[in-house]
């Protein structure tokens, strides 16, 4: 089982490998997210300021990484989701990000 940190609510699944998956998602607190990540994780946070903010929030180093990841049954992810849609092409600084509302969401791909 792998654990990921993502800066999207999208759950990346390789549909060449799986025809169907079930995903369970729920909002979590910073403390719950820290608990999920304490045994290690893979970062696929493709925005540098977001990685820095998550590092500060979660108390662990969340590397900036534009890696492509695919979740499999049993995998979990902590998703960082801004509650505001940004204008096309807008890249936020760390200070701008800190002023916006967000959710932390836990997802798990459930075996079918």
Tell me what you see in this structure.
- It is a single chain.
- The chain is α/β, with parallel strands linked by helices and 112 residues long.
- It has one domain: Uncharacterised protein PF08960, DUF1874 (Rossmann fold, 3-Layer(aba) Sandwich), CATH 3.40.50.11170.
- It contains three helices and five strands; from the N terminus they run ββαβαβαβ.
- The protein has a five-stranded mixed beta sheet, with helices on one face.
- The longest helix is centred in the middle third of the chain and has 11 residues, at 48-58.
- It is globular, with a radius of gyration of 14 Å.
- The model has no long low-confidence stretch (mean pLDDT 92).
Tally of contiguous helical segments: 3
The CATH superfamily label reads: Uncharacterised protein PF08960, DUF1874
CATH class: Alpha Beta
Gyration radius, in Å = 14 Å
Helix content: 10-25%
Biggest sheet strand order reads 2-5-4-1-3
Question: Could you say which overall geometry the principal axes of the C-alpha atoms support?
Answer: globular
Helix/sheet category: alpha/beta
Described by strand count, sense and barrel closure, the largest sheet is: 5 strands, mixed
Count the domains. Answer: 1
Count of distinct strands:
5
What's the mean pLDDT score? 92
> Helices and strands, in N-to-C order?
EEHEHEHE
Write the CATH fold name: Rossmann fold
**Which architecture per CATH?**
3-Layer(aba) Sandwich
Beta fraction: 25-35%
- Intertermini distance: 15 Å
**Would you identify the regions where 5 or more consecutive residues have pLDDT less than 50?**
none
